[in-house]
Design brief:
It holds the Pfam family Ribonuclease_P. Keywords: Endonuclease, Hydrolase, Nuclease, RNA-binding, tRNA processing. By secondary structure, this protein is an alpha+beta fold. The protein is built from 3 helices and 4 strands. Helix content is 39%, strand content 15%.
């Protein structure tokens, strides 16, 4: 909420974030992947069962999408890593309404690329869509094997 009491149209509350280490690991290992010259995006549906076969205990069963950002230390010093995080979060925040709901997205930069807002903004929605399609096709293949 803003100070004036009105709801902001593009916000990034904690409920829109992937925060647990296990959720990051699950998305990185089992999610669909898409990459361009700048970013790598992993997408995993919220209701994917854990290793023990139980659906993940997600308190918010809404169709909201969540974002996790992981920036390796090899990317640069703290200033560089924080810039990457700010730009990726901003691209997510501004394009949230265009993204498919019900997915966790984990985003990281490619190696040896400098943070460029135009490249991030231009490719973000396209990459997410491609990662979602790959995630859905991989879950379709795994369900037919069972």
């Amino acid at each position: 909420m803003s100070r004036t009491g009105g709801k902001r149209p593009h916000e990034f509350p904690k409920s829109s974030r992937v925060v647990r280490s296990s959720e990051f690991t699950k998305a990185l290992r089992r999610g669909g992947v898409a990459a361009n010259d700048c970013l790598v995006v992993f997408a995993l549906p919220h209701d994917v069962p854990d290793a023990d076969g139980e659906p993940s205990p997600d308190k918010s069963k809404t169709v909201k999408c969540r974002l996790g950002v992981t920036i390796p230390k090899k990317t640069g010093n703290a200033v560089v890593r924080n810039r990457w995080k700010r730009l990726i979060r901003e691209a997510f925040r501004l394009n949230q309404s265009q993204l498919p709901g019900g997915f966790d997205y984990v985003v990281r930069p490619k190696k040896d690329v400098t943070a460029d807002w135009k490249m991030i903004e231009k490719g973000f929605v396209k990459l997410v869509g491609r990662a979602v399609r790959r995630s859905q096709s991989s879950t379709d293949r795994s369900s037919t094997r069972s």
